Amino acid sequence: MRLNETELKRFDEDGYLFFPGKFTPAEAAMLKREAETVYATDRKEVWRESSGVARTAFAAHTYNEGFRRLGAHPRLIEPVRQLLGGEVYMHQYKVNAKAAFDGDVWQWHQDYGTWKRDDEMPEPRAMNIAVFLDDVTAANGPLLFIPGSHKAGVVAAGHDLATTSYPLWTLDRATVTELAERGGCVAPTGPAGSMLMFSSLLVHASPPNISPFGRTIVYLSLCEVENHIRAFRREPWIAHRDFTPITPLADDCLDELVAGQAVAAE
Amino acid sequence: MRLNETELKRFDEDGYLFFPGKFTPAEAAMLKREAETVYATDRKEVWRESSGVARTAFAAHTYNEGFRRLGAHPRLIEPVRQLLGGEVYMHQYKVNAKAAFDGDVWQWHQDYGTWKRDDEMPEPRAMNIAVFLDDVTAANGPLLFIPGSHKAGVVAAGHDLATTSYPLWTLDRATVTELAERGGCVAPTGPAGSMLMFSSLLVHASPPNISPFGRTIVYLSLCEVENHIRAFRREPWIAHRDFTPITPLADDCLDELVAGQAVAAE
């Protein structure tokens, strides 16, 4: 589960690492079904696009067993602990839908920009680690990264309250262009079950999904425990206030749920 | 220049063929500079996004020497003549910009749907052949195809006058979903100079370009001469009325212009 020297060097240079197929198709399919169940519920943690379809479900690890286990999965927790050099707690947990036809844009931004401005997280000792629950292709609104942009530190941003249903601190075009002239712009694509980890300072975005296929991704935002947030302006199910270190479960922690669904389907 | 048996079989099954790097980087770069020149002119053939940046330049082969030569290039004309089984004329010629940040969506549609309804083109004996003038990637709004959808014939469509600055006969979501469940959804990506040919019945779309890089593609819509349009409701620089068969130029017809720009740059 530990990152090797090559991976550590690449993370330092690019600000992200991509592991296609890190979770099995069965694990990804089980979590996809759980996501559908969550989206179908009417609860405050499920944020919707202006069209009404689900955009993101917050804090699903607090009310869904599959996502609870994923939130302590060693394939996710251990490499992040290694990179951040300490215990981690769950700062934010999102299951982003990017629904077929309706999934809207996420504008260019840095996650730490929001965590610093809204939540007063002291340092960028926090990062994202994501699992694809659908195949992510060039066609269904993949995540876009500007490699190396994490080295720019916290860049200026404006609070965009208008573009989508979700408020976001976003970067202006001149800044994005300048960073992309140095680092380019990439879209990691791969099968359901792929894992993607990226610096909380990495500049990223994703386009609308106009394709007929959904594109669900789970994001854990993990923060080193002593670097916990100081301000509590956002809802506790968006910016969590439980700073308990996460104890990783066993690597086969999803197997029981996969088997349970397989039985139910017979 | 002729398509082989494998290519003909693949075109029949999928409705498109993709040839990465069919034109040289120098040829593509010369045409990209010509596109910038065209977009910078204030003329009726240059259609703009609601933001004001260029969306498409129509009929550039009639007022630009580079695009005039490309419009009779043997790498484009000959395979289309082979597939359509006769002489061809230029029904439409578009240089589509899909500008960085501003390039807007093209909704799901079949080109022949518009040519039949608006222009009374008798049969789908017409097709598109395109040349990438920029690298097309997962990040900058690639063209999306539903392979095999050309076999569905002309499918029902509604006239969308609202979504973008350009009116288009577009397909509903149920139809797109049903076709994609059979054929999937692909995004041919490749370097500047790549060539893409596709049936006028192939269902396609392209998402907005939110990346900091432009994505210019030239589209020739070629029609078999006896299948020329019967109605003249659209502007003659959008749906052409000159049905003269195109005589292909020599394969090196762009070299002189490439050399000329190279000299000018020294």
From TrEMBL, chains A, B:
The keyword Oxidoreductase applies. The keyword DNA damage does not apply. It comes from the Bacteria. InterPro entries: Phytyl_CoA_dOase-like. Transmembrane segments: none annotated. Its cofactor is Fe(2+). Keywords: Dioxygenase, Oxidoreductase. GO terms for molecular function: 2-oxoglutarate-dependent dioxygenase activity; iron ion binding. This is Phytanoyl-CoA dioxygenase (PhyH). It comes from Oceanibacterium hippocampi.
